[in-house]
Design goal:
Structural class of chain A: mainly alpha
Structural class of chain B: mainly alpha
CATH class of chain A: Mainly Alpha
CATH topology of chain A: Helix Hairpins
Number of helices of chain A: 3
Largest sheet of chain A: none
Oligomer: heterodimer
Radius of gyration of chain B: 22 Å
Order of helices and strands of chain B: HHEEHHHHHHHHHHHHHHHHHHEE
Number of domains of chain B: 3
Distance between the termini of chain A: 60 Å
Number of strands of chain A: 0
Helix content of chain B: over 70%
Number of strands of chain B: 4
Helix content of chain A: 55-70%
Largest sheet of chain B: 2 strands, antiparallel
Largest interface: A-B, 43 and 49 residues
Shape of chain A: elongated
Strand content of chain A: under 5%
Distance between the termini of chain B: 24 Å
Strand content of chain B: under 5%
Chain lengths: 113, 500
């Protein structure tokens, strides 16, 4: 098995594992970690895609690598935002759950603007 | 390689339209506090003028306005491209964002002497960020560039959801963010596959190259799935109602009216601009079926809500369903495709204006009454006549009664489904109209009945006028002339590589 096929399979496995975690784990922090797992898988796929430059005589195609760097920055920013929200949610309410039932009050209809 | 479409006259307007809100964000951040509001409000006329200038250029030239960034033509460079639909969306976004900004002054202004607050600073900066992100989405010509814009839109929208910091809004924002992250990473994987297959992400170049191969279908499925999560199409709509209903009214109007349309716009770009060459009838029918399910489920859930803002939010879920009927009704190069296309864009616009008007009115109502429980609205229409006029006119467009943009959209949809022999799509269109009538009457009936109502504070006339103005635009869309529909066709590919 050539290294890039192996890397592609690992990427696919990471995306699959991450998707499983994102859907099934109820805790937001685990969902966030699962999202980062998917991200790693996608970035690995971008790495394989960069090999297409080999046909044109380059050792690699720089554009997918530039995209991966942008993607990593975006994923980092997203993770930071999500962690900030999780921390704030815990600080405000003492619990971290996304279950909408948990946030429905008996008098749902209080003053909202 | 020769430049396929170099910069056209007016191309630099596209760059200005993106730079203006970005400069506003930086300026607001540096000047801080009470100046952020002045910067955001001061920019609105310029943003509106730029959008109109772009629309004028597109309409008068009869072809898309293009700008090649850095003078490099694709595939080496990245192009910005505004066609008829982009131009119309830019103007609509400018109008709604301007209306929301002036409406929001009552809540997020920092008068002289009052301490500056982080909430106000965040609000004004995020509003400009939404403007910037939407502009890039509407004029972006490169799939990866559009990915970044999509993420910017999410990062600007999520803080608006939880801006008042109550735990339930934080949970709603977190849920929204997680759905959106799934959506964007799925979109990104599709982008990687497209690049791997064809070595370019420029939309027209890709459209010339794509063929019906497994990798293209995989990429299209991943990108569509991701965009559906961001657009909140049934069954991925779960995040939308709590997020839109708990945000401040001005933010809800922008989120429901414009932000979900951003990711829908990219779905249109993907299927009508990147993949027009694919035999996609099957995919179009799946999207149409999901849209029909959204119409029914969203409307029925709207009928069951106890709170006005939640009712309006579920109505958004239903109205988003209508948007997806554009795929079976306009895909391919048929005689009826133009009608379907006009219907889809008209539905985007009519819903954007009607829904923004309704959320702004719901905000006024909640402030005046101190609650937004539908069961306790008795007599409210007598106390707040102008607010309920706006709710009623917005509802008129949602139901699809003439004369309104909603009526034009649904009428064109019916015409396209009959002309194409796909009569099955008339059922959700008609059923959705009836159900919409049901939930609009659920608001109006108690409000128009007898009852004693105590106003905490009467709403400001100017804020009521802003909401009414948006509702009137939704009605005026019903009188759109043929020239308007011709504008929507500018730059829409019929099949691979052919522009009309």
């Amino acid at each position: 098995m050539s290294p890039w096929v192996l890397a592609g399979l690992v990427g696919a496995a990471l995306v699959g594992l991450g998707l499983y975690g994102l859907i099934l784990h109820p805790h937001p922090l685990r969902k966030l970690l699962a999202f980062n797992l998917i991200g790693s898988g996608v970035f690995l796929v971008f790495g394989i895609v960069a090999r297409r430059g080999a046909a044109a005589g380059f050792s690699f195609d720089p554009i997918p690598q530039a995209m991966v760097i942008t993607g990593i920055v975006v994923a980092f920013a997203a993770s930071a935002l999500a962690v900030a929200l999780i921390l704030r949610l815990h600080a405000e309410s003492g619990r971290v759950t996304l279950d909408p039932e948990a946030w429905t009050k008996p008098d749902d209809g209080a003053a909202k603007s | 390689m020769m430049a396929p479409d170099p910069t056209t006259p007016g191309g630099s307007l596209l760059v200005l339209a993106i730079l203006l809100p970005c400069a506003g964000i930086i300026l607001s951040f540096v000047l801080g506090g009470r100046n952020a509001e002045r910067v955001a409000l001061g920019l609105t006329p310029f943003g509106f003028a730029l959008a109109c200038a772009i629309a004028f250029h597109v309409a008068s030239a009869g072809k898309p306005v293009v700008y090649a960034l850095g003078g490099l033509a694709p595939p080496l460079g990245i192009a910005l491209r505004a066609d008829g639909v982009s131009a119309v969306m830019l103007v609509a976004a400018a109008v709604i964002l301007t209306a929301a900004s002036f409406y929001a002054r009552a809540k997020f202004a920092t008068p002289e002497g009052a301490p500056e607050s982080r909430i106000a600073l965040t609000f004004w900066i995020m509003l400009q960020a939404i403007w910037a992100a939407l502009t890039i989405i509407f004029v972006g010509g490169d799939l990866f560039n559009l990915y970044v814009a999509l993420e910017l839109l999410t990062f600007a929208a999520v803080p608006l959801v939880c801006i008042d910091g109550r735990p339930e809004t934080l949970a709603a924002a977190l849920r929204y963010l997680l759905f959106a992250l799934f959506g964007s990473i799925s979109y990104l994987l599709g982008v990687a596959l497209f690049y791997g297959a064809y070595g370019t992400l420029d939309i027209p170049l890709l459209a010339q190259k794509v063929q019906s191969t497994p990798i293209v279908w995989m990429a299209a499925a991943l990108m569509t799935g991701g965009l559906l999560a961001k657009t909140a199409l049934f069954p991925l709509h779960l995040w939308l109602p709590p997020a839109h209903a708990n945000a401040p009214a001005a933010a809800s109007a922008v989120l429901s009216g414009l932000v979900v349309k951003g990711s829908f716009f990219l779905t249109l770009r993907l299927w009508f601009y990147v993949l027009p060459a694919l035999p996609a009838a099957g995919a179009a029918n799946i999207l149409g079926a999901l849209g029909s399910a959204a119409i029914i489920v969203g409307s029925v859930l709207a009928l069951r809500q106890a709170r006005l803002k939640l009712l309006i939010a579920y109505s958004t879920v239903a109205q988003i369903g209508y948007l997806f009927l554009v795929f079976p009704l306009a895909m391919g190069a048929h005689v009826w495709s133009d009608i379907g296309w006009s219907a889809g864009v008209m539905q985007i616009l009519a819903h954007a204006f009607a829904k923004a008007a309704m959320f702004l009115s719901a905000g006024l109502l909640a402030e005046a009454l101190g609650h937004d429980q539908i069961a306790r609205l008795g007599g409210a229409a007598r106390a707040l006549p102008m607010t309920f006029l706006t709710l009623g006119l917005g509802g008129l467009s949602l139901m699809g009664l003439p004369p309104s943009g909603g009526f034009s959209a649904k009428w064109l949809m019916l015409q396209a489904s009959v002309a194409s022999g796909q009569w099955v799509w008339t059922l959700p269109v008609l059923a959705g109209g009836l159900l919409a009538a049901g939930y609009v009457y659920r608001i109006l009936t108690p409000a128009l009945s007898e009852g004693d109502i105590v106003l905490k504070a009467p709403p400001k006339r100017s804020r009521e006028a802003i909401a009414l103005g948006l509702a009137l635009i939704a009605l005026a869309l019903g009188f759109a002339p043929q020239g308007f529909f011709d504008l929507l066709e500018i730059g829409r590919p019929l099949a691979a590589g052919t522009l009309r």
